Description:
Elements: E1 4-10, E2 12-13, E3 24-29, E4 32-36, H1 42-48, E5 56-60, H2 66-69, H3 72-81, E6 88-93, H4 96-107, E7 115-120, E8 126-130, E9 133-139, E10 147-153, H5 162-167, H6 174-180, E11 185-187, E12 190-192, E13 206-210, H7 217-222, E14 228-232, H8 240-246, H9 251-261, E15 266-269, E16 271-272, H10 277-290, E17 294-295, E18 302-305
Helix pairs in contact: 9-10
Amino acid sequence: xxxxxxxxxxxxxxxxxxxxxxxxxxxxxxxxxxxxxxxxxxxxxxxxxxxxxxxxxxxxxxxxxxxxxxxxxxxxxxxxxxxxxxxxxxxxxxxxxxxxxxxxxxxxxxxxxxxxxxxxxxxxxxxxxxxxxxxxxxxxxxxxxxxxxxxxxxxxxxxxxxxxxxxxxxxxxxxxxxxxxxxxxxxxxxxxxxxxxxxxxxxxxxxxxxxxxxxxxxxxxxxxxxxxxxxxxxxxxxxxxxxxxxxxxxxxxxxxxxxxxxxxxxxxxxxxxxxxxxxxxxxxxxxxxxxxxxxxxxxxxxxxxxxxxxx
Length: 311
């Protein structure tokens, strides 16, 4: 069965620590990797997790604070040295292109493969249709230009029943292709409908990635009816004032956003290094008291996103 896997390469915030490295999340689907944020050390953590950076085709940068993108120039350089030829598409704030151009100008290094920077603008919702999925971006409430992303897997056709087609005498040619694509065909004087040989379509899955941010309406829009919400949870519920002042959220606020959005699973992310084991346990318990389907991943934890009910 097709899997989407979420590999948490770094789950910390601002300062790396032995307990939690800086934020980076790999979404793995059909051999492709979509990377959300690229903190320093991300490519090393991918190697340690057995995931080749060469499989990355799309990178989505939330904002230009260092703990979310300082690993990006190094990853691009390494891919150049490894003779990558595939394009790399990087989505993020408008100033991201200037950041990369400045790095290249100062270091006198230019990648030998196409690096395509796609700007997100805060003035309007944006949706990009890519191979096998779409991505929507909306601005979050953090201070500097910061974007959340909604990853939407395309619906997939149902499974073709070759044995049933053979029993009906349908030849293995363009008639079967037409049936797979939902067309009714005629063969030997009989009309054959797609549902006779094709199972129900598989509904695409949706993952929302929201960091860094205070609670806001755009989080609820991005996470609406999502299979998974990855939401920053920098602070303990007792630190709500500090979260407000710094443009972040508590674990309790993340859970409240998950309830408001009607999503199915919440992963707490971007955990401050000032939290110890006890405070993290309290953060998780507080979130679960509001939204029971909550986890607080550790670095290198990997979760599957289950296939939804058929259409």
